[in-house]
Each structure stands twice: as structure tokens, then as C-alpha cells.
UniProtKB/TrEMBL annotation:
Pathway: Purine metabolism; IMP biosynthesis via de novo pathway; 5-amino-1-(5-phospho-D-ribosyl)imidazole-4-carboxylate from 5-amino-1-(5-phospho-D-ribosyl)imidazole (carboxylase route): step 1/1; Purine metabolism; IMP biosynthesis via de novo pathway; 5-amino-1-(5-phospho-D-ribosyl)imidazole-4-carboxamide from 5-amino-1-(5-phospho-D-ribosyl)imidazole-4-carboxylate: step 1/2. Gene3D superfamilies: 3.40.50.1970, ATP-grasp fold, B domain, Phosphorylase Kinase, domain 1. In the N-terminal section; belongs to the SAICAR synthetase family. It comes from Euroglyphus maynei (Mayne's house dust mite). It holds the Pfam family SAICAR_synt. GO terms for molecular function: ATP binding; phosphoribosylaminoimidazolesuccinocarboxamide synthase activity. The lineage of its organism: Eukaryota, Metazoa, Ecdysozoa, Arthropoda, Chelicerata. This is Multifunctional protein ADE2-like protein. Residues 299-449 form the PurE domain.
């Protein structure tokens, strides 16, 4: 599902440096580059590592490549699950500096660091000395800090954020925008945490930033800047002593940092870059081209209809699973538990052979025997869904789905969309990408309500 295409960029098309920070430069594009000039910027990382608001700073050859590799893998994942970001693409290999640069949407940055914590550690303990290290925040702990190195990035309360009425790129930041960014901060943490959990790594805390960009005349808030090994605490096996993030550098005595110390820091960055690239690339599903595949593809969801007349309803569920939730291998079968019981049992055996199949949908109208028969003969969840939302029909037929014998279980869901949601939620219990896609849809639904006016 990766829509990102590495872009060919000529250095002769780069314009002025729009902004230069401690670890990166952001270039505009010349007006002659009509494809990128008004909409995109070129972000180039530096071989520099800093801490303590820049008080501690060292040259770290190769860091720019490692940070870019980590950042691109993360943002490609966030884009794939539907989070709005500034990231456009990597730079094509034919370009100079392609390993340490990427293309982003042109944004006006909001000068706030949004911090999300799962575990109490680090600076939080200094500000809250009575909280024991290791305290687990559920819900997540959110904090915001105004970006001001001279004053050590002071903490800003939610009320301060709202009261500041910052004008960013022509958008005045309102209470609703603040709530939106809190929601997205939690979302980004949750989806990255879920991904790292699949390889037994604990995401302890992280910081992100937002920008305001304009597309088709509409200003919107997007996740911006970079997310790399400077942005988080990451503990393999949940053990602090195994930390791989920039905290290793922060903990070093500045007067004793030598080549060996920097090599240790770089080695950690190399490990994280490699693991990030491998993990997040592996999680993004690739939509198979069914016309080029020979043989059988193991399904993720199996849909069984009791009659060919229910095909349209089944296709609605399948289309929603594929297009909204990125569940691409969905099989549809026809079998009536009443009229062809033996065939239905054989079909159950066929479905059961695939470990990939996480849920079965039984579509039957009058006198639903299909769902209970499949549920009694399959060790995976079965959802019964009548192919109608007509209340008068449901009042008569729904009981055959609800009142079933003991020793079996089938959920009953009304409506194609809701059935697809439940399928995705079941699949998502063992698939970080699907889980994250659902979480993203839920979060943006909340955000739409936050901005709703009556």
C-alpha cells in the first residue's frame, strides 16, 4: 500500500535555505520548478547530534543517513495508515545526498513540542519527584513545551496554548486545534508503540511536532518535522539498560565524550535505523495483483453467502475491507446450511486449513442456519449478518441468529459497514497495521466531532 514514489530532484532546482536548525536544513524549490515550487520543500539532514538545547553538540559522521532512513520508514507507515503528515517521499537514488534527504509539503511550523509518555522516566521525574520511575501512564500522559532553547523549552499548559492564539500560516490556533493535536499525538504514539511491541521493543515516550499546510485552498494541521532516534526512548525487552535511543548520548559526561563514545552512539543509531526500516516496511501490506498470481492465496477473511442473490451485500463488505481497512485477500463462497449441509461442512474444512483466516462472515436471511453451523464447526470467530437493514424483516428473522444452542457462539451484526468494522477489529488483534488503521479512523472521527458546529 505504499503510495510513496522516490522523486528525482536536481540540486540545480533547489532555492534558498528557508530554515536551518541544529540537525537539518530546509530548502525551497526555485520558481522554475513548477512541480515543487509552491507546495514542497527539500529537507537535508546534518551529521550532527545535540542535547541540552544545543549545549552538548558533536559531529557524528553518518548520523544524517541513519536519521533519514528511520524518519522515512516511520512517515511512510504513518501515511499508509491514514495519518495526515507533511511527508511526500524519499529522494530517488540517482540524486546526490539521496540517503540523507526527503521531500515534504511546505508547512508553517507550530513552535510546540508535543510529548507523549507511557512510562515515567527522565525529565518527568525531575519535575515530579514523588512519581516513581517506571510508573505506567494509562491513559497516556501528554505534555507540551514551547520551543525556546534560550529558556530551555518551557512547559506550556493547555490553557496557555489556547490563550496564545498563535497565528500559524494564516491559521489561528483555537481550542479545537489544540484538542486535535492532542488526539493526533496520542494516535502517533499508540500506532508506533503497537508496531514496536511486535518485536518486543517498548516505546517509552516520544515527541512530535505539527505544521500547517494548505492544499486546494484548505489549511490543515499535519504531523511534521522528523521522527527519528532523537525523538523517542526505545527500550528493547522493556529494559532501560538496553536503551538504543539518543538518551545514551544525553547521559554521557560532555567532558569525557571521545571517539569511542560517539562510535557507541552511532552503533545504536545504526541498529535502530535497520530495525525501523525492516519492521515498518514489513507491516505495510502490498495489494496483490490477482491477475498475475497463480494458485490459491490464503484468505484473511472468508465470506459465505447462503444464496447467490446475497452477492451484492457480500461485495459491499469485501470492498470496505479492502479499501478502508487494507485487508486485501477476502474470499466469497456460496453455500446453504439448509440445502447443502455437507457442502457447508466441507467448506468449513477448506477455510480451516488457512492459519491466515481470522474471521468468517455468514450472510443469510430467512432462518439463519449458516452462521450457527459454521460457528459449531470452526475454531475461529464467525459473524452472522442478515443482508438487509429493513426493521420489519429483521424483527422476524433476527432471532435465528440470536437464539442458538449452547456450546457455540456467533456474533450478529447488522449492516455491511459495521460487519466490515468487526472483521477488521478481529484481524487487528494480531495485525499491527490493521489495528493502527482502525485507530486512525476512530481518531479522525473524534476530530471531526471536535470541530463540529451546530
Amino acid at each position: 500500500f505504499n503510495n510513496s514514489i522516490d522523486l528525482e530532484i536536481s540540486k540545480s532546482n533547489l532555492g534558498e535555505i528557508l530554515i536551518e536548525g541544529k540537525t537539518k536544513q530546509v530548502y525551497s524549490f526555485k520558481s522554475s520548478d513548477t512541480k515543487h515550487h509552491d507546495h514542497h520543500v527539500y529537507v537535508l539532514s546534518k551529521d550532527r547530534i545535540t542535547a541540552g538545547d544545543g549545549v552538548k553538540s558533536h559531529q557524528l559522521v553518518g548520523k544524517s543517513i541513519l536519521s533519514t532512513q528511520t524518519n522515512c520508514a516511520i512517515f511512510e507507515y504513518l501515511n499508509a495508515i491514514g495519518i495526515r503528515t507533511h511527508f511526500v517521499s524519499r529522494v530517488a537514488e540517482s540524486n546526490t545526498d539521496y540517503k540523507r534527504s526527503f521531500i515534504a509539503k511546505r508547512c508553517s511550523m507550530i513552535p510546540i513540542e508535543w510529548v507523549c509518555r507511557r512510562i515515567a522516566t527522565g525529565s518527568f521525574l525531575k519535575r515530579h519527584p514523588h512519581v516513581p520511575e517506571g510508573y505506567r501512564f494509562a491513559p497516556l500522559k501528554l505534555e507540551t513545551f514551547f520551543k525556546d532553547d534560550a529558556n530551555h523549552d518551557p512547559f506550556w499548559s493547555e490553557e496557555t496554548l489556547i490563550g496564545a492564539k498563535m497565528n500559524i500560516g494564516g491559521m489561528v490556533i483555537t481550542a479545537e486545534h489544540v484538542q486535535e493535536m492532542f488526539q493526533i499525538t496520542k494516535l502517533v504514539f499508540e500506532v508506533l508503540e503497537r508496531a514496536w511491541q511486535t518485536v518486543n521493543h517498548s516505546l517509552i515516550d516520544m515527541k512530535i511536532e505539527f505544521g500547517v499546510c494548505e492544499e486546494n485552498g484548505i489549511k490543515q494541521i499535519v504531523v511534521a518535522d522528523v521522527i527519528d532516534n532523537d525523538s523517542w526512548r526505545l527500550w528493547p525487552n522493556g529494559e532501560k539498560r538496553l536503551m538504543l535511543d539518543k538518551q545514551v548520548y544525553r547521559n554521557m559526561d560532555n567532558s569525557k565524550i571521545d571517539e569511542d563514545a560517539l562510535n557507541l552512539v552511532k552503533a545504536n543509531f545504526e541498529i535502530v535505523a535497520e530495525r525501523t526500516q525492516k519492521l515498518f516496511n514489513s507491516l505495510i501490506p502490498i495489494r496483490p495483483d490477482m491477475t498475475k498470481i497463480e494458485g490459491v492465496i490464503a484468505p484473511t477473511v472468508a465470506i459465505v453467502v447462503g444464496s447467490p442473490s446475497d452477492k451484492e451485500y457480500a461485495l459491499k463488505i469485501k470492498d470496505t475491507l479492502m479499501n478502508r481497512y487494507k485487508i486485501y485477500v477476502v474470499d466469497i463462497h456460496v453455500s446453504s446450511a439448509h440445502k447443502s449441509t455437507q457442502k457447508t461442512l466441507e467448506l468449513a474444512a477448506q477455510i480451516q486449513q488457512w492459519p491466515s483466516c481470522k474471521v468468517v462472515v455468514a450472510i443469510a436471511g430467512m432462518s439463519n442456519g449458516l452462521g450457527p453451523v459454521l460457528a459449531a464447526n470452526l475454531p475461529i470467530p464467525v459473524i452472522s449478518t442478515p443482508p438487509t437493514t429493513d426493521v420489519s424483516i429483521l424483527q422476524t428473522d433476527i432471532w435465528s441468529s440470536l437464539r442458538i444452542p449452547s456450546g457455540m457462539s456467533t456474533a450478529t451484526v447488522i449492516g455491511a459497514d459495521n460487519t466490515a468494522i468487526m472483521c477488521a477489529q478481529i484481524v487487528g488483534t494480531s495485525d499491527a497495521f490493521i489495528w493502527s488503521t482502525i485507530r486512525t479512523l476512530q481518531t479522525y472521527q473524534v476530530i471531526r466531532l471536535i470541530h463540529s458546529r451546530i
